[in-house]
Amino acid sequence: MSIRKIDVARGILWVEVPEAGLRVLCGCPADAVKHLIKRGLIVPQEVKGVRCESGPNAILLSDISPQGDEFANLAEFPVLQMLYMQGLILPGHPNNTGRKPVLIGSAEQVESQMRYVYRGNYGLVSREEITQAGVPAEQAAEMMRLKLKFAFGRIRPTRDFVDTYIVGDGPVEVAKGVSVRRLRPNLFEFTHGGESVTVDLNLQPAETYECAYPLDYHQFEPEYFGVIHSGEGDGWDVNRPCMASIITFQGCLYLIDAGPHLAHSMAALGIGIHQVDGIFHTHAHDDHFAGISELMRADRRIRYFATPLVRASVQKKLAALLGMEEDRFADFFDVRDLVVDEWNNIDGLEVMPRFSPHPVETNTFVFRALCGDGYRSYAHLADIVSMDVLEGMVTSQEEAPGLTHAACERTRAAYLVPADLKKIDIGGGMIHGSAKDFRGDTSARILLAHRASGLTAEEKEIGSSAAFGTVDVLVAGQSEGLRRHAFTCFAERLPGIPLHELRMLVNHPITQINPGAIILKEGEAPRELLLLLSGQVERMRARDKLHATLSAGSLIDTSVVLDNRPSQFTYRTASFVRAMRIPLGIYTEVVRRNGLLDRMRRTADLRGFLDATSLFNKGLPVAIIGSITDAVSERHFRPGETVTGQDLQVLSVLRSGRVERTVGGKVLDILKERDFFGEEGAIFNVPYLFHLRVLEETSVVQIPGELLADVPIVRWKLFQSYQQRVARVIYDGDRAEVLTWRDSFSVQVAQMDNHHKRLIEIANAIMEQLYGEVDRDSLARALDALVDYTHFHFDAEEKLMALYDYPGAPGHCNDHRNMVLQIAEYRQQVLGGDLPTRARFLQFIESWLVHHMLDEDRKYGAFLNAKGVY
Q1: Mean per-residue pLDDT, 38-48
Q2: Element (DSSP H or E) covering residue 519
Q3: Cβ proximity of 102 and 57 under 8 Å
Q4: Which of 198, 329, 424, 503 is the most buried (most CB within 10 A)?
């Protein structure tokens, strides 16, 4: 056969055409490179006497990102493997023949990956971006000199070292005689020499991407102040998670970094994402960043601790990856900026971040806690640089790339500050550390990490190693955190009950349950109530393809215990679990005599329904489900009715019936039981882009959006479905009288392109309101949204131009003022009764917005591109 196809792992395939010299990694979720290594598709080799690796030379991207609640496209490490491990970019390397790595996929995903790889390479790309993060101008200039030294003197656009092929409506040739075409979303066909293979990158419901390595189960003990070692490897280690740690302090859990397959590592430790109290972030490289999607899917906004410099770098990379505005980061995290070079107090745990030289903005951390005889401390030095490399960057030329001797010595001194426990990166090469730099370090215990290979004899004399799941105790003392957590859970679930009855409920044994144990089967009535205090439990109903992971704070199973009914799900432990066992009788009696039985039944009924939906199957915080119970309403629609007005300002979940969703008169999909609509107005505050027509008697549960706005897991799922739905409209050029996004609209600046896409979404929503019978309330909201977002976008654009002293700014700002007047007048005209046709409005929006993007915005785009801003 001329084409070879291999199933590598779930969602990852390999297509090879030897005759054309094409080797395609199809699908690149986190750790795709490790899967290729495990399958022998990346191996060490020697080419003309030079040692290097084999591997892919092209990547086929998923059309859908994220997928399965995870990032489907993470091309950073596969591209790095091609450029450096294979040698495609190394001067004088026999594999450096001028052929570049290739990205293949939709225009949207290819452009997103190009920007994300760019941010992954460089982080912040100009002095202006660094000063915007709060760094003084003189210090920003020093940081930029160092960044340019790492970048070999120049910030280069991704297109300098990566080629692309856009898969549109028809086949595209990606190598000599090899073509790729899309059969339907995420289903592709490769053709060569009369042969063809299909590649399906879709994950099925409840499927997730596989972790490349197995991990043993561990049961952590919540020490007063300790460090759980949750990763010691690097981005290439096929046996261990990437360098990371978990700090325990006074019953709280804090992550340091979020590497690939974070949830897998946490489950192996018996910790659920919902137990995480915060994350300290060192930098934005994928081996410390890719697991951030897991934290974005928590039941509350997890605290995010980083310096503004690192946070800005992370926000820009995440925005490029997801195609969202940078300030949306705060929708998913409770942002807590840290002050560099100072002790920051986090509820008694003190942390000092220090700047560390690296291609992207990076901080090391020293943590300390006060105990009986003074402080105990832990230093975490991820992605540091060896002193040999740093000394080689020293220059006395003030403007040249590099750093001063004084800055070099400051870095050395920061690295060697003694600690009771210090974990260091010894990855070597140009951008990682060396163990020999710490031979004279006076720290009590040194751990060596961030490398795939074993330690040398010399390194073993300098530092220790730590196996996954081991713990270093800095201040001993078991906290009563689990029982306190149980107390809080019952207080939230049973509002107003006396203190003595709460104490009575939590006066029950906490037991440990081993991984893989079935604790309740579908169809069985529970014999006791289980309150999950640590670890993870799977809830499943295979026939309906329903699967969720429950974490600490979940009760199993309140929807049935009050009336001793059989369970509708099977529950199975996914890790070591600690749970409190409460007899059913005492729980139901406490509920009954405090007058909460009816409320608990309503809550149980509602939770049972929501748990069976794809939107809420990962669970909701106890306080939120209680608020929803009090505020939820049920709405009934008759066949033929159109959903309008206030019904589009709340989130509606179908209990029964069917609803047709259309755009421009064409059916987009049919909503059925447990599907939802209304997130645009309820959560995202944007006008509705579609028409909804009821096909049969339909009942929906309506939930006010403000109750869900601060629940990241719900926001993530809504964002994911909303993005996919909108993309089918604004990227589908076949739809008549719809403004579709075209490559020619791009100004090549990610932030502004995202703004322009949002303006197009709003414009299409207005056009949809002009289709058929006009809903004047919805039309007014859509026009108001266009005016409001225009102000927001123009303000951001003008600030960007001012930051970089764009010479065309005065004229451009004057155009903005005229455009604001035009859209305000047009709004008044339409609301006054002069309703345009869809074609007339499309003509107006193209003359008002599109021509401005093509004529004026692309001018500042070229100006900013020349300064490295994309």
Answers
A1: 95
A2: strand 518-520
A3: yes
A4: 424
Residues 313 and 283 sit within 8 Å (Cβ to Cβ): yes
Residue identified by tokens 């081993």 is 514
The H or E element spanning position 50 is strand 50-53
**How far are the Cα atoms of 303, 318, 843, 866 from residue 117, in angstroms, in the given order?**
26, 11, 37, 18
Strand order in the sheet with 698-703: 633-637, 698-703, 651-656, 676-677
Single-letter amino acid code for the residue at 813: C
CA distance 586 to 616: 29
The stretch 393-420 carries a mean pLDDT of: 95
User: From CA 143, how far away is CA 410, in angstroms rounded?
Assistant: 14
Chain centroid offset of residue 413 CA: 35
pTM of the model: 0.92
Cα 641 to the center of its chain, rounded Å: 38
For the record, the structure tokens of 659 come out as 């609803």
What residue type is assigned to position 130 of the chain?
I
Cβ-contact 247, 378 below 8 angstroms? yes
- Pick from 209, 163, 170, 160: nearest CA to 59: 163
- CA 740 to chain centroid: 27
Residue 122 in tokens: 């460089």
pLDDT at 655 over 90: yes
Bridge partners of 513, per DSSP, are: 577
Task: Compute the distance between CA of residue 456 and CA of residue 454 in angstroms, rounded to an integer.
Answer: 7
The Cα–Cα gap between 63 and 66 comes to: 9
| SS3 category, 675 | coil
* Closest among 235, 251, 270 to 84, alpha carbons compared: 235
Q: What sign for the dihedral angle of Cα 733, 735, 739, 741? A: negative
Q: Once rounded to an integer, what is the mean pLDDT over residues 201-224?
A: 88
Structure tokens at 113: 């990956």
Helix axes 308-322, 750-769, angle to 10 degrees: 50
Tens-digit pLDDT profile for residues 693-712: 999 999 999 999 999 988 99
Q: Quote the tokens at residue 148.
A: 């340019």
Contact criterion met (CB below 8 Å) for 117 and 76: yes
Please tell me the distance from the alpha carbon of residue 807 to that of residue 534, in angstroms, as a whole number: 58
Residue 25 is encoded by which pair of tokens? 């990694």
State the Cα–Cα distance between residues 863 and 802, nearest whole angstrom. Answer: 12
Main-chain dihedrals φ then ψ at residue 637, nearest 5 degrees: -120, 145
DSSP 30: T
The 8-class DSSP code of residue 432 comes to S
**Residue recorded with tokens 């750093």:** 403
Q: If you search the block for the tokens 């915007």, which residue do you land on?
A: 132
Range ranked top by mean pLDDT from 309-313, 491-495, 739-743, 810-814 = 309-313
DSSP H helical segments within 613-711, as ranges?
622-631, 679
Cβ partners under 8 Å of residue 108, min gap 6: 323, 727, 731, 741
What is the rounded CA–CA span in Å between residue 148 and residue 170?
A: 41
The Cα angle at residue 225 between residues 222 and 231, in degrees rounded to 5: 75
